[in-house]
Design goal:
about 190 residues, mainly alpha, Rna Polymerase Sigma Factor, Chain: A
Length: about 190
């Protein structure tokens, strides 16, 4: 089966082919869910927000002008819906970590991680991401897992590129602190 571009399906939707949207949903549903669940941290809530994201995208598809990638436009909708949900439910605030990280401790962590199985590494990193503040978790996910550029992340989050760079730097430091204190790290060190 031939793989078409997002724009192909968007054009089909605008011409009245409602089933074309199903392809876009299938293409992006796991990405949207991943970003949202790392922000709101509640599976059921994340599923609802992801669903709302696609409803909003379908209703607003005519406003997509192609100035950015469709995926970025979609992530932007999801990001804003997740932030709205977080604002409504203030109880999901993550604690800030301000521990100082040295180059030596980063090297120790990286060495310990080489002994951990890939699956275990992935689970450990995902648990650490969930301990970051919501906005930082989203930025880390977009940058490292969704491979979005700093420019695209700035469009999605409506933050400046410099602000994204600072948040990425701080988030990486916090991730290393979390990794350093994880049980898996301690077992392999």
């Amino acid at each position: 089966m031939q793989q078409h571009t997002d724009q192909y399906y968007i054009d089909k939707i605008l011409q009245g082919d409602t089933q074309a949207f199903e392809v876009l949903v299938e293409r992006y549903q796991s990405y949207i869910y991943t970003i949202v669940v790392r922000m709101v941290r509640v599976k059921e809530e994340a599923e609802e927000i992801a669903q709302d994201t696609f409803i909003k995208a379908y209703q607003s598809i005519a406003s997509f002008r192609g100035e950015s990638k469709f995926s970025s436009w979609l992530y932007s909708i999801a990001y804003r819906k997740a932030l709205d949900s977080i604002r409504k439910n203030k109880k999901y605030k993550a604690a800030e970590l301000n521990e100082e990280i040295t180059e030596g401790s980063i090297e120790i962590i990286e060495n310990a991680l080489t002994y951990i199985e890939d699956k275990e590494k992935k689970e450990l990193i995902q648990k650490c991401i969930l301990k970051l503040p919501e906005q930082e978790a989203a930025i880390i996910t977009l940058f490292y897992f969704e491979e979005q550029s700093i420019k695209e992340i700035a469009k999605i989050t409506q933050l400046t590129e410099d602000n994204i760079k600072v948040k990425l730097y701080r988030s990486r430091k916090k991730m290393f602190t979390l990794l350093q204190h994880s049980e898996v790290f301690k077992m392999h060190n």
